[in-house]
Design a protein that fits this description.
Distance between the termini: 53 Å
Radius of gyration: 24 Å
Order of helices and strands: HEEEEEEEEEEEE
Number of strands: 12
Largest sheet: 7 strands, antiparallel
Number of helices: 1
Length: 224
């Protein structure tokens, strides 16, 4: 037993010696200071969403310590097509949502998805999906790039920009990302601010409900 103890002790000394001998070749740098949210003055710095959806007014803000959550999602759907130059385009989606964070099927949950067929040689940090621009209504079922919205109302009825048949060419609504910065909280790659309005939502009976006057500050940009 004494011999074994001596061997372990000697091994420990040798290990410490080896580590110390390499110390002059190891340089530690201070973790870079986090970028302040100075580019989001219009909507403040809090994660939030406000909107009027039919008769229902949503006001989600000051989420820390509450039952309301702000989540992100992503989807990689594989090959869309290959163009005449040989570039392949992939089906990809990035989304964000607001609502009770402990149950995605709870009432008054709203989910936004940005969808597109993106060439795989683009910068995958944004995929060309997350950018400072206006988005029109899209449809993953027929491959139309744009944004899609799903909302569960107070009666657990599901409303969506995706109609049961097809989205008509006259489908209204827009979503605009007006501010975009790097995010450092570990949940997403970016924090985005923007607005949306005049979005038509449909239930399974083709009833229509309108979203008006929406604003948001949200996390966005989840790893696939």
């Amino acid at each position: 037993m004494k011999t074994l103890t001596f061997i372990l002790t000697l091994g420990t000394i040798v290990s410490i010696g080896l580590f110390s001998s390499c110390d002059d070749r190891v340089e530690l740098s201070e973790y870079p200071e986090q970028e302040p949210d100075t580019t989001l003055p219009a909507l403040n710095h809090d994660l939030k969403l406000t909107a009027k959806i039919g008769p229902d007014s949503l006001i989600y803000r000051d989420l820390i310590g509450s039952e309301i959550g702000n989540g992100v999602s992503s989807f990689y759907g594989g090959l869309c097509f290959t163009d005449t130059n040989g570039f392949t385009y992939d089906s990809r989606m990035q989304g964000f949502n607001f609502g009770p964070h402990n149950d995605s099927a709870s009432p008054r949950v709203i989910d936004f998805q940005l969808y597109g067929c993106i060439v795989d040689t683009l910068n995958t940090r944004r995929d060309g999906l997350i950018d400072l621009k206006q988005y029109d209504v899209g449809n993953i079922n027929n491959g139309t790039s744009g944004f899609m919205v799903t909302y569960i109302d107070e009666n657990y009825k599901v409303w969506s920009t995706l109609r049961e048949d097809t989205i008509p060419d006259t489908q209204s609504g827009s979503l605009t990302i007006t501010d975009l910065i790097e995010n450092y909280d570990g949940f997403s790659r970016y924090k985005a601010a923007g607005d949306f309005s005049n979005i038509q939502l449909y239930d399974t009976a083709e009833n229509v409900m309108l979203i008006e006057g929406g604003q948001f500050v949200t996390r966005v940009g989840k790893y696939y």
